[in-house]
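Fill in residues.
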């Protein structure tokens, strides 16, 4: 029998990292690793990192500083700790991480997670002679693995057991596409995740069925460029995202589908029609535009104009009038003038966002935009970010307020912070708080919205929901 060990995984960055951390955890389970929520208890600490902005990457080094102290304390009580850095910082910086932070034993990139058991053996110092034999004991060594292997990692990662899936809740992520070929001039993703690869449709359907069997009600399909999905179908012909969604929607139990993140250039007619025709597809779309200025959009290599984007939003809203739109914005991209920034405020006014994420431009090593001389001063970025966020927050508050008095179907996920409170999500992805029993978890029930909070809604269960045999609305 394998001795029990504990693993602590800290996840930074996007939802794909959340998904990847779960897969790493599942892949470690057969080796005897159980997850712990206390880093100081962990025999193996993995930081699953994000390189998108400088601040995200720097957080990793400050965490490694704390881990160095913890590892030394554990060593004093005779306990060893293996420290690993995974994710996009690992891919971007590789060896450099070990030079800067000698506490680190392993560095491995996002395409190598299926090799985790073998990498651990290498750190322990013994190559595993075969799958069944134990590794030969030898000297501990450091490991750096940042290649893009030829084999498909998804084929070699261990699927979650039903019990593990259940413990993660009723809403799950499912990565269908990875990497990006768009090369926006500010972005590290094409370098850290590699070129765009779509998983075969059957593999995705198999995983979606397993999720449904374990009680999952909502699946969010993930990809850095998810709407560019073009996986192989069973007949060898490519399947696009609209058709993949339709096949997943046929799986009993999966009542809610979402996908993120989309690029405006890849929103095809079939996908737009799916928002009209597929009741399982939730009326929420994350469609980043980044800027409202055509000059900046061109410099970003986004390959569309502001009016292309607004026309697209009109077409999607024609298919699904109640669609809640969310976006990403960058302020202070090199060369951004006051007029360019005003154009971003204008596109926000015209598109109307239910939610949005906005960032100050952060120059990333190796990306073309970082080389542009006309960098915008930090103080100007700060001021622009504040103005942009004030506008977006006002739009978000107005959208939430417009829902008061309406009845929304809520998928309940977990207990809230207050006694007797349960929390779920509206179709528009807002958290909704009600008074109710834990039996609600995993059910979709109608809620009369009575008030709004900070990024959330409050309401009352409609009487129909109190019938315990009612499973979904
Ligand atoms: N694939 C997605 C986004 C991935 S990164 C897309 O195409 O939209 C998430 C967001 O981080 C981006 O949408 C962008 O707004 C922001 N971002 C990426 N690189 C950045 C940088 N160098 N500085 C500031 N924000 C950045
Ligand atoms: Fe980055 Fe652009 Fe690709 Fe999105 S589309 S991941 S912003 S390069
Ligand atoms: Fe960050 Fe990598 Fe995701 S850079 S946003 S973790 S793809």
């Amino acid at each position: 029998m394998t001795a029990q060990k504990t693993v602590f995984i800290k996840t930074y960055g996007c939802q794909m990292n959340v998904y990847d951390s779960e897969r790493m955890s599942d892949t470690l389970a057969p080796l005897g690793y159980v997850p712990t929520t206390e880093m100081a208890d962990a025999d193996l600490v993995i930081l699953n990192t994000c390189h998108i902005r400088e601040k995200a990457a720097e957080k990793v080094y400050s965490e490694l500083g704390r881990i160095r102290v913890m590892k030394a304390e554990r060593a004093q009580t005779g306990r060893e700790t293996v420290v690993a850095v995974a994710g996009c910082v690992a891919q971007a910086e590789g060896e450099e991480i070990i030079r800067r932070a000698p506490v680190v034993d392993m560095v491995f990139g996002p395409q190598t997670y299926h090799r985790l058991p073998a990498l651990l053996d290498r750190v322990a110092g013994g190559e595993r002679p075969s799958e069944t034999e134990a590794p030969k004991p030898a000297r501990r060594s450091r490991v750096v693995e940042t290649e893009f292997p030829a084999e498909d990692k998804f084929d070699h990662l261990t699927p979650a057991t039903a019990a593990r899936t259940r413990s993660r809740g009723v809403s799950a992520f499912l990565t269908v596409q990875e990497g990006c070929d768009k090369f926006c001039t500010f972005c590290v993703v094409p370098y850290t995740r590699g070129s765009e690869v779509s998983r075969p449709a059957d593999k995705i359907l198999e995983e979606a069925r397993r999720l449904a069997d374990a009680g999952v009600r909502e699946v969010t399909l993930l990809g850095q460029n998810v709407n560019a999905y073009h996986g192989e179908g069973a007949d060898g012909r490519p399947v696009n995202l609209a058709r993949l969604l339709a096949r997943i929607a046929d799986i009993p139990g999966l009542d809610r589908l979402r996908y993120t993140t989309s690029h405006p250039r890849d929103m095809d007619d079939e996908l737009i029609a799916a928002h009209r025709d597929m009741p399982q597809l939730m009326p929420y779309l994350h469609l980043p535009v980044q800027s409202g200025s055509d000059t900046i959009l061109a410099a970003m290599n986004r390959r569309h104009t502001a009016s292309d984007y607004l026309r697209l939003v009109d077409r999607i809203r024609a298919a699904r009038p109640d669609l809640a739109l969310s976006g990403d914005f960058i302020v202070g991209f090199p060369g951004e003038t006051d007029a360019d920034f005003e154009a971003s405020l204008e596109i926000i006014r015209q598109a109307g966002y239910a939610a949005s994420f906005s960032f100050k431009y952060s120059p990333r090593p190796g990306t073309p935009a970082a080389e542009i001389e006309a960098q915008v001063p930090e103080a100007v970025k700060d001021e622009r970010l504040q103005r942009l966020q004030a506008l977006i927050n006002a739009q978000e508050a107005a959208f939430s307020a417009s829902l008061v008095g309406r009845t929304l179907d809520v998928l309940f996920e977990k207990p809230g912070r207050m006694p007797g409170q349960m929390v779920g999500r509206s179709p528009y992805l807002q958290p909704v708080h009600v008074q109710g029993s834990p039996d609600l978890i995993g059910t979709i029930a109608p809620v009369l919205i009575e008030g709004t909070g900070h990024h959330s809604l409050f309401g009352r269960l409609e009487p129909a929901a109190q019938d315990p045999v009612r499973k979904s609305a």
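The first helix runs from residue 15 to 28.
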